[in-house]
Amino acid sequence: MNSSHYESDTHALEARLAARLAGSLTAVAQAVPHDISERLRVAREQAVKRAGLARESALVLAPAVGFSAAGAAVLVGFGAWRQRFAVAMPLVVLIAGLVAIGHFTAREQVLTIADIDAQLLSDTLPPSAYSDPGFAEFLRTPPPLQ
Amino acid sequence: MPLATDKELSDFLKSVEKRAFKRAVYAVRNDDAALDIVQDAMIRLAEKYADRPAAELPLVFQRILSNATMDWFRREKVRGAVMQNLSEFSSGGEDDDFDLLETLHALEDTLGTESAADAVSRAQILRIVDAAVSDLPARQREAFLLRYWEEFDVSETAEVMGCSQGSVKTHCSRAVQALAKALKIKGITP
Fold first, then answer.
1. Taking CB atoms and an 8 Å cutoff, what residues of chain B touch A30?
2. Min CA distance, A18 vs chain B (Å)?
3. For chain B, counts of helices (H) and of strands (E)
4. CA distances (Å), A135 to each of A126, A144, A145, B63, in order?
5. To the nearest whole angstrom, how far is the Cα of B58 from the nearest Cα of chain A?
6. Chain A within 8 Å of B54 (Cβ-Cβ)?
7. Is the Cβ pair A36, B97 closer than 8 Å?
8. Domain-by-domain residue ranges, chain B?
9. B6-83: CATH topology
10. What separation in angstroms does the CA of B156 have from each of A7, B43, B58, B133, B161?
11. Residue of A nearest to B19 (CA)
């Protein structure tokens, strides 16, 4: 117990002396020569100017790609409608692609059927011949061996 | 938390610039180099941390100043010479506490008064304190200046210095003991 009491006294004494010494150092620092004070003032003004420039350039670069907390890329600085547009755009392109593929397939089927019809109609054999049972049997019968 | 405005940044730098200069002078022992270091630290703070809240500026600036000082040593390649100065003082004991008390009384007697008769003595003591701080080992001086001059707490000091809180306490204690001893050697006794 005496030991801890002694230790706290030592720390308190050190803190008091340190505070006095720090006060002395402040007086020392305030007494720097005038030319150094001026150079520090100029450095400070330059720094504040640079800070202004840094803020301006940050504003110009604001609509750049940033990262959300989840790690996904999001657009920073654009309006909410532009963000929604950016999200919807790939979906619109996908749907348009599917519609175009469907339309192309249907057109191909129509053209194929039209081609078959055209060949049937232009043949010397009338289309009604295909409904004749005798002709159907003729088609199923293999040709005689030579 | 609101971001620092130009005025807040300017006021902060104005409040800290002379202490920063002295801290750099203690480290590099050259006024021109110290000015370069402080200017470098100010520019780095302004360009990279101008968007931080004003409350964060003191800690960030001291860290930048420490880094700028280390960069200067790296450039000058004299760090080895400085490290030679890292002699450790003996650990504290009852006699050291007596020294502390004597030194504290002497400082309070001399610096606490403003009479004309004490003016010269006061200036002399300031010079002696200045020299004693300058002669401290680098890490002890840094811990002492951050903890008691910049008034950072132990954890903040440890963060700036990149060491443990226990190390900060040890450095600070040894620094105060060493300063008391140095002042006593210079004849500052009641």
1. 18
2. 6
3. 9, 0
4. 12, 16, 20, 101
5. 15
6. no
7. no
8. 6-83, 94-185
9. Rna Polymerase Sigma Factor; Chain: A (1.10.1740)
10. 23, 22, 10, 21, 9
11. A29
Q: Tens digit of pLDDT for each residue in A93-134? A: 999 999 999 999 999 999 999 998 888 888 888 878 888 888
3-state SS class at A63: coil
Residue A76 CA to residue A65 CA, distance in Å, equals 6
CATH code at B94-185: 1.10.10.10
Q: Is B58 in contact with B41 (CB distance < 8 Å)?
A: no
User: ipTM strictly over 0.95?
Assistant: no
* CB distance B179 to B133 below 8 Å: yes
- Say which residue, B123 or B68, is predicted with more confidence: B68
Tell me the C-alpha to C-alpha distance, in Å, between residue B153 and each of A70, B68, B159.
35, 22, 10
Question: Which chain A residues are closer than 8 Å to B89 by Cβ?
Answer: none
- A71-85: per-residue pLDDT in tens? 444 444 456 677 788
Which of A67-71, B48-52, B77-81, B141-145 is modeled with the greatest confidence? Answer: B141-145
Flag if B43 and A27 touch (Cβ within 8 Å). no
**What's the first-to-final CA gap in chain A, in angstroms?**
128
Looking at the DSSP bridge assignments, the partners of residue A73 are A67
